[in-house]
Structures are given as C-alpha cells and as structure tokens.
C-alpha cells in the first residue's frame, strides 16, 4: 500500500481565511481517515493585517512533526507568501491567483519568485469566488476546492466540513461556498498535473481506540475533564487562553465551576484554595503568568496542597513574543519561587501526551500532595494532531486512600512523617481532621516551627515524596527511540521539540548513522538514572531545545558528569529538522574519528 | 555592458534559451528573465514521441537540469502570459497585471499550430502534440495499435507518424497543401515523398476534403471522419499538423513592424532598437531575395538565438541566408527531414 506523506502550507493575510482553510483541510483529511499534524502561525494583532500561515502534514501513519519543506504552497496573499516560496520542495507545487484585480509592479506577483524546480498552478481564485458567492471572501474555499480536485482528493469530506463550518449562518452561505468549492474542484480535476504528489489509502484504525483531531490545548481540556476536574481558575494569556475558553463551555456541563479571576495571582490562590478544600482544581497560564504565580506556588509546596498548573510557554522574557513559541520557562517551572520549593514538572511531547499528562497531573498532585506544573509551549498548544484516545477513561478518580489514615481517638497529624513521605490528608470539615495550615515552616501538626532539625526533616519529606512520582503508573516518564544499545549519537529532548528530534533521528538512521533518542517527560524530579544510562550508551550526546542558554541541558548537567553538546535556538518557531540533522551528522563524524583514534 | 541591464526573453524554446545562455556568458552581472506561458522549463519537443514507448515523465525531457537556471541566474517565469509590449516605455504587461521593465527585449515566442477556419468547428475533437501535456493526453487515449488520422502532415507530424508506425500504431495521413511544411516540395517530388511514406507504413489519402469529424458511437472508435468523396474513417485520434503561425499577438500595438511575423533586419533587430526577435516568430530580411522570410528547424533557430544575444550585447553579427534544407529519401527508402536533427 502506498504511504501518504504530503504537507500543505496555506499563506495569507489575517482576514483571508488562511487559518480557516487550513482547518477545513485538516478536518476533512482526518475525516477521510488520514493522520494529520498541523500548526498555524498568526500575527499578534487580532484581525485585519499581518501574516497567517497554516501548515498541514497528512500521512498514513502519525508523523512526529511537520516537515521542513512543504509539497504545496497555496498563496492567498502574494506579498506574505513570497518569502515562503523557498520552503516548497523541488517539483512541489505553488497555487496562486493568476487574475488579481489590481495592477502590480514587477516582483509583486508570486509567479516571478518560483524556483526552477517548482511547479506553478495559476487559478482565477478571486474571480471564481466573486462568481459563485458574490464576493471575494471565499477565495480560501476556491483555493481549497482547486487543490482537492487537482490532487484527486474526494470532495465529500470537504462538503461535510464546509456545511458544518457555516451551519450557524444563513443556509445560502453554506450553499454558495459549496458551489465555490465545487467549481474550483472541477477546474482542479481538469488541470494537467505535472507534480508527483499522490495520496495513498489511510491506515486502518486500531480497535479499542478512537481517532480524534485536536490541538495540544484541546487535549489538555479533554484530559482535565476525563480526570474529573472540578474547578478551574484562570486569567487569559496567549497561548493558554483556549484552555480556559474550552473549559468555560465544557466544565459547567459536567457540574464543574470556572472563574475568570482578576489576575494570575488570584487564579493560583483560588486553585490552591480549591485543592485545600478537596476538589480537583487547575489553572492555565504562560510564562509571564507563571512568574506571578510562583510565590503562591511556594505556599502550595509547603502546605502540601494539590494543584495543577498548565503553563504554555511563549517567547520571553516579559511580554516577549506572545505568538511565538519557545521553551524558556523551564528554569522558572522547576526552580521558580522562594526556598527549596520542589514540585513535579511534566512536559508532554505531543498532543496525545498532553492529554495523558493533563489527566495524570491530577492523580500525581493528589497522590504526592504537591503542585504539578504541566509545561507546554505555543507550538504544542496550538498544533493539531490526530490522536488515538482510549475508549476507557485511563485516569484514576479522586483518591481517598490517604484520608483513610485518620483514625478515631488518635490525634491527627497533617504533616506526619511516613515511610513514603506522604502524610494523611483531610479536607476541611472532615471529622477528626482538624489541623493548622500555614506558609511558615511547621511541625507534623502544622504548627509553626523553625527549628533546624524540623526544617531539615520537612525539606527532606517534601523532596523525597516526589521521587515516587518517577514510577507513577500509566504515564511515560521517559522513553528511548531508535537504535538500542551503544550508539554513536544520542539525542536527549523534551517538550514539543521531541517531534523534530525524532524526524531528524529517522533521517539520520536512513543515512546509516547509529543514533538514538531519549525523550524526558518528567523534568522534576528528573529521572537521573535512566539519563545516566542513556549517556553511557552514547558516544556523543546532543540536547536541542528552544531557549538561549540550554535550560534542560543545565538540569542534565547537574545529573551527569559526561560532556555533551548543547544546541540552542530561539527563532520563535519550531526547531528545524535539518538543523538537528546537521548536528547529528557532525557528532557522528566526531564519534567515528574519536573511536578510530 | 553594465550590471543594470535587464534582458527579457519572451519564449522558452530553443531560440530563447540559446539567447539566455549567450547573454549570461557575455554579461555576467545582468538580469535575465525568460517569460513563458508554459508551466515547464525548457524541454525538447522533438523527444515527445518517447512518451509512447518509455516509462518517462517531463523531467526526462528537460534540456537543462534544474540547477542550470539557478547557477546561471536565469529566472524563468512560467505560466505567465504577455498581453502587451510598450516599446516606448520599455515595459511589457502580463495577464496577471504585473508590469515588467526591460532594457533589451527578445521576442522568441515561436509558433502556434495553424488550424484553418473550415476546421474550427471540429477543434474540440482534435488532439495536438505540441506540448508535453498534449502528448500525454494522446498517449493516454490512444489504445495499443490504435489508429491516428493526421491532417496535413507538416515535418513535426511526419516525425510523429514515423515513430507511431514503428511502435505499431496505424497512421492515416490526409495529405493537403500543408504536407511536408515548411519544406518547399515541387509537384514531382511530392509523389515520390508520399510514396516513401506509404513504404514506411503510413496510409496516405489524397485529394479529399474533410466534411465532418464527430464523436464515434458508443463502443466504436472515438472519432468518425467523413470526407467529401463519401469515404469515411474511424480512428482513435485525429491530429492536425498544418504548419505553424507566429505566436506574437501581444506585439500588436507595440509599434514594431509585423507582417506574418515580426520583421527583423539581418542582425535580428526589429524596427525598435531595443526589441529583437528570433526563431519561428520572426521574418528575416533576405537581401538576396529582396523579401522577408521565415527560417525553421532546431539548428536555424538556435543560431538565431545566439546571434540575437550577441547583438543585444554589442556585436553586429548578421544572419546569413541559408539555403533551403531539402527533404529527401535515404538509402533505406525512409523519408528524412533535416529539420528532425537536433542536439
């Protein structure tokens, strides 16, 4: 069976429907049974100007990341699309409007910028939109219809998605857009094709699972709901806002509560308060918001109250680059705050992982009585993937096991020292569970105590209880991919960059380079032993990440003594597979020459 | 010549690409732009019959590898249609409303298939073979050992005919005054040449006019042709090969003299000092014959491209009137046209 692997890039101005057409395309392809990974880039401005790009990769089997080069570029605005022409591969296609209404100076039309190996497909995009819908707003639908016809993709899934898209509007709008789509589809189907783009059959679905297409943030919401989230408190911030937006609709339907607070400090305070009251609670923010939350986070740590904080990173510091991706809040998530405020930090590497980490975060927060930070980034929050979600809810419900330790007639010690360092926990109003809770260092009863021995023991307790999380069931803490045993090059990765790392690894393996990837999902506490083991297997180790100084590399450096290579980039966009591959090649050469010497 | 020159070439065939090559050699810093309505880079149309008997795609027909254009900084603007040339402002307009400024313009847009008015109504039922896409279409609809009716039979058509016959297809040639175009064939030679075609396996019909071409009935051959003498033929494909007409409508109103083609002096300059022409689109002044005339064939056209480029960059080379290249029958009784020779 022929494998499908094509990537399309829609490029236009805000208001051209660029993101919308990418959305229809990926939904239609997912509906047709293909696997999809997609990522949109849009300007910080709300509407009206600025460049929008929607990239969609369609595959038979789920891909790890977007490809560096697209097979097709659809230009809805030439001035924005022209700089992206070099991103189309040789013998790839460029679809554009060849009948614009305004005159232009030399160089303003995209046809003049195509590289010799690329194939031009001009279409009267605006004209067809005008003829079929009475306006130019459906240029995106026309372009979509043309490319579907051109590449022989069945129109039915598109029809369904277009109808769904316009279902809340006057029926005539859906009909005219369908006419626009079909008219362009016919043109596309009758165009003589010169490219070599083919779609194979989609892969069959696995039994017992359900394929859905969603963003990282949508997966977080789904994970929260499946894990039984009761309360959410938040303050909007890009790129985390869509978590709160979705929950605002979904959570009340399930009997939960959502409150938009006046700022991030209130949001974390309310989250910890709700956790103290015994319900599953969460907040979501980005780096600037997390910076405001860290003081209260310390309270959650010392008072051992469960809470879950989702942080979707963006370019920083300060307001930074709100619509650009980065992995530069790792230090803040792991170390941010006063004192030794140990907490659990999880960083999913893909959309399915975002679902699992979100749900498991509640289990962990309760089991280890601590704040859990789930670290995403704009790339993962906003990117779409088709995911296989289990039909059975994989998350444990609210845990009551620790409350069972409260026994009648025995004075209750909320912070008792135990074998697993986790103390019996009660919620307010529970019989026999009266205790003091404070931000001050305290004794087992919760009463303030700043004796050095007590501080030592409590610090140890708060630290060691988290180590058990490294063996928490049902979640991947770390995982190795690629070649087993000794390899020339090992690549250690975290967060969304793992997708690009895995793609680079596959390409390197295809070149005959012996290499292996280890992804680390739990960043605090760090799975030190597996990382050390990985290092011992690799002649050279590379750590690529999207921050300037190598924040994950710094964590790793504290755990291993062997030298490794940092690869840090802050372009505001996902790391390039080719750049990682270049580094792997370089290190493979070095490994070979050192072993030869 | 300085680096500010922008040489624009309309046409992506032999003449245009040969000119681009020599322009780059002679003016390394200049800008060179080739404008073509086609979607492909320069490919060999002479090789198109290969579509019938090889598993090949358009990349196999490219004359230069893709890197050639980047290495030589030749920008090929494909799928672009010139609508007007303003010789006074030294600009040309493209159909998508973009205006391009040139320093020197070479028109090498070649020729388009000629179709007489009486066949116009049958145009939708006719197939061509002038482009890669057209050749693929014929390949796709023509069954193995299928029948092709060829109207006229210019040298391009005859080249295809001999290839089709060799590949086991049946070819019926409806001879007209355009048969053997652009060779000038005397009446006594004509009978010999038609005889040679018959010997090669081509069925030749003479002295008839097309009365009707229509879609074949279901289950029958795709085309039904009726002649004025009552004869009829069923075929899978009908193709006109009736010579070429210069494709330079966009030069109308440019102020440059135009007769049947663009009129150029022996140095290939038109009546505008910044506009030159080469290839099938131009008529070159022949002092010996005291008239303007066309020259065809890969070698002639290639030479024109070279001369135009050299003259555009300061030389003064003149086209030498070539003697007509003759059609002939070789020792194997095969009809041969010198125009079939190419690099």
Structure description:
- The complex is a heterodimer of chains A (597) and B (343).
- With 597 residues, chain A is of the alpha/beta class.
- Chain A folds into three domains: 5-189, 3-Layer(aba) Sandwich (Pyruvate-ferredoxin Oxidoreductase, domain 3), CATH 3.40.920.10; 211-390, Rossmann fold (3-Layer(aba) Sandwich), CATH 3.40.50.970; 478-596, 3-Layer(aba) Sandwich (Rossmann fold), CATH 3.40.50.
- Chain A contains 18 helices and 20 strands.
- Chain A has helices spanning 18-31, 78-81, 125-133, 139-150, 156-165, 171-189, 216-226, 241-253, 264-276, 287-302, 330-335, 351-367, 378-382, 452-467, 497-510, 528-537, 551-557, 577-596; strands at residues 5-13, 35-41, 51-59, 70-75, 88-97, 119-123, 209-215, 231-234, 257-260, 281-285, 307-313, 344-346, 371-377, 384-390, 478-482, 487-493, 515-520, 522-524, 538-545, 565-568.
- In chain A, strands 6-5-4-1-3-2-14-7 form an eight-stranded mixed β-sheet. A seven-stranded mixed β-sheet of chain A has the order 9-8-10-11-13-12-18, sandwiched between helices.
- The longest helix of chain A is centred in the last third of the chain and has 20 residues, at 577-596.
- Chain A is globular.
- The two termini of chain A are 46 Å apart.
- Chain B contains six helices and 22 strands.
- By secondary structure, chain B is of the alpha/beta class.
- Chain B has helices at residues 14-26, 66-71, 132-141, 155-166, 187-199, 298-312; strands at 6-10, 31-35, 74-77, 82-86, 91-94, 99-101, 104-107, 111-113, 147-152, 170-174, 203-205, 210-215, 223-227, 232-235, 237-241, 244-246, 262-264, 275-277, 282-286, 291-293, 328-329, 335-336.
- The radius of gyration of chain B is 21 Å and the shape is globular.
- Chain B starts with 5 loop residues before the first strand and ends in a 7-residue tail after the last strand.
- Chain B folds into two domains: 6-112 and 245-312, FAD/NAD(P)-binding domain; 115-242, FAD/NAD(P)-binding domain.
- The mean pLDDT of chain B is 93.
- Classes of the chains: A alpha/beta (597), B alpha/beta (343).
- The A-B interface holds A 90-91, 97-106, 108-109, 111-112, 114-117, 119-122, 192, 194, 196 and B 39-41, 57-59, 66-70, 75-80, 94-101, 133, 136-137.
């Amino acid at each position: 069976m022929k494998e499908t692997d094509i990537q399309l890039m829609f490029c236009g101005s805000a208001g051209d429907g660029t993101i919308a057409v990418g959305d229809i395309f990926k939904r239609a392809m997912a509906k047709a049974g293909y696997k999809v990974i997609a990522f949109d880039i849009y300007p910080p401005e709300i509407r009206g100007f600025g460049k929008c790009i929607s990239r969609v990769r369609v595959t038979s089997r789920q891909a790890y990341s977007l490809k560096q080069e697209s097979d097709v570029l659809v230009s809805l605005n030439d001035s924005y699309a022209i700089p992206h022409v070099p991103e189309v591969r040789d013998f790839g296609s460029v679809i554009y409007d060849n009948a614009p209404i305004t005159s232009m100076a030399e160089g303003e039309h995209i046809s003049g910028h195509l590289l010799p190996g690329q194939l031009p497909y001009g279409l009267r995009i605006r004209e067809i939109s005008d003829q079929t819908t009475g306006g130019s707003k459906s240029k995106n639908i026309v372009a979509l219809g043309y490319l579907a016809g051109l590449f022989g993709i069945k129109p039915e899934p598109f029809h369904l998605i277009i109808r769904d898209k316009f279902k809340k509007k006057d029926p005539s709008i859906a009909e005219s857009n369908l006419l626009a789509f079909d008219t362009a589809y016919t043109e596309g189907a009758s165009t003589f094709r010169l490219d070599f783009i083919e779609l194979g059959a989609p892969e069959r679905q696995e039994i017992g699972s359900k394929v859905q297409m969603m963003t990282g943030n949508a997966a977080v919401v789904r994970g929260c709901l499946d894990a039984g989230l009761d309360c959410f408190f938040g303050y909007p911030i890009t790129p985390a806002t869509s978590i709160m937006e979705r929950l605002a609709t979904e959570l009340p339907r399930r009997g939960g509560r959502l409150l938009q607070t006046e700022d991030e400090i209130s949001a974390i305070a309310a989250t910890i308060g709700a956790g103290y009251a015994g319900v599953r609670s969460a907040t979501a923010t980005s780096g600037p918001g997390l910076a405001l939350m860290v003081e209260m986070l310390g309270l959650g740590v010392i008072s051992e109250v469960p809470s879950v904080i989702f942080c979707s990173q963006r370019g920083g510091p300060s307001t930074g680059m709100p619509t650009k991706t980065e992995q530069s809040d790792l230090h803040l998530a792991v170390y941010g705050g006063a004192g030794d405020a140990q907490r659990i930090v999880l960083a999913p590497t893909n959309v399915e992982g975002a679902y699992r980490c979100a749900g498991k975060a509640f289990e962990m927060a309760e089991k280890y009585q601590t704040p859990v930070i789930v670290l995403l980034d704009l790339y993962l929050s906003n990117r779409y993937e088709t995911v296989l979600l289990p039909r059975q809810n994989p998350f444990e419900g609210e845990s009551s096991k620790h409350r069972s330790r409260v026994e009648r007639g025995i004075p209750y010690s909320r912070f008792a020292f135990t074998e697993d360092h986790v103390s019996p926990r009660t919620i307010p109003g529970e019989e026999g569970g009266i205790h003091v809770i404070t931000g001050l260092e305290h004794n087992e009863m919760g009463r303030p105590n700043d004796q050095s021995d007590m501080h030592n023991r409590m610090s140890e307790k708060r630290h060691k209880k988290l180590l058990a999380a490294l063996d928490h069931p049902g979640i991947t803490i770390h995982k190795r991919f690629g070649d087993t045993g000794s390899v020339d090059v090992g690549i250690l990765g975290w967060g969304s960059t793992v997708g690009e790392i895995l793609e680079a690894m596959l390409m390197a393996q295809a070149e005959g380079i012996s290499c292996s990837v280890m992804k680390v999902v739990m960043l605090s506490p760090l799975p030190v032993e597996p990382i050390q083991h990985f290092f011992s297997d690799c002649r050279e180790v590379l750590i690529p990440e999207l921050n300037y100084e190598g924040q994950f590399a710094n964590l790793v450096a504290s755990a291993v003594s062997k030298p490794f290579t940092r690869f840090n980039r802050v372009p505001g966009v996902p790391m390039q597979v080719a750049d990682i591959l270049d580094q792997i090649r370089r290190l493979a050469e070095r490994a070979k020459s050192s072993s030869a010497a | 010549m300085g680096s500010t020159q922008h040489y624009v070439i309309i046409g992506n065939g032999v003449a245009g690409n040969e000119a681009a090559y020599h322009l780059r050699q002679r003016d390394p810093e200049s800008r060179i732009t080739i404008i073509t309505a086609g979607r492909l880079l320069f490919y060999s149309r002479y090789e198109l019959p290969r579509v019938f008997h090889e598993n090949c795609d358009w990349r196999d027909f490219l004359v230069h590898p893709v890197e050639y254009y980047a290495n030589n900084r030749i920008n090929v603007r494909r799928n672009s249609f010139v609508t007007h040339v303003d010789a006074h402002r030294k600009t040309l307009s493209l159909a998508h409303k973009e205006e391009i400024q040139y320093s020197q313009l070479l028109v090498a847009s070649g020729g388009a298939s000629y179709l007489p008015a009486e066949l116009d109504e049958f145009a939708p039922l006719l197939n061509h073979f002038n482009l890669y896409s057209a050749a693929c279409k014929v390949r796709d609809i023509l069954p193995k050992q299928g029948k092709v009716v060829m109207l006229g039979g210019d040298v391009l058509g005859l080249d295809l005919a001999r290839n089709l016959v060799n590949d086991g297809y049946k070819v019926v040639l409806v001879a007209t005054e355009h048969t053997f175009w652009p060779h000038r064939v005397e009446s006594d030679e004509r009978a010999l040449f038609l005889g040679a075609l018959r010997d090669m396996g081509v069925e030749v019909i003479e002295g008839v006019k097309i009365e009707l071409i229509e879609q074949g009935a279901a289950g029958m051959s795709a085309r039904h042709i009726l002649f004025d003498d009552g004869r009829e033929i069923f075929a899978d494909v009908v193709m006109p090969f009736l010579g070429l007409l210069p494709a330079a409508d966009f030069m109308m109103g440019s102020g440059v003299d135009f007769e049947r083609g663009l009129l150029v002096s022996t140095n290939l300059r038109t009546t505008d000092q910044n506009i030159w022409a080469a290839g099938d689109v131009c008529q070159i002044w022949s002092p010996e014959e005291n008239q303007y005339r066309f020259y065809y064939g890969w070698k002639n056209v290639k030479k024109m491209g070279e001369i135009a480029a050299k003259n555009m960059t300061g030389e003064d080379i003149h086209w030498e009137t070539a003697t007509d290249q003759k059609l002939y029958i070789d020792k194997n009784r095969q009809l041969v046209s010198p125009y079939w020779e190419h690099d």
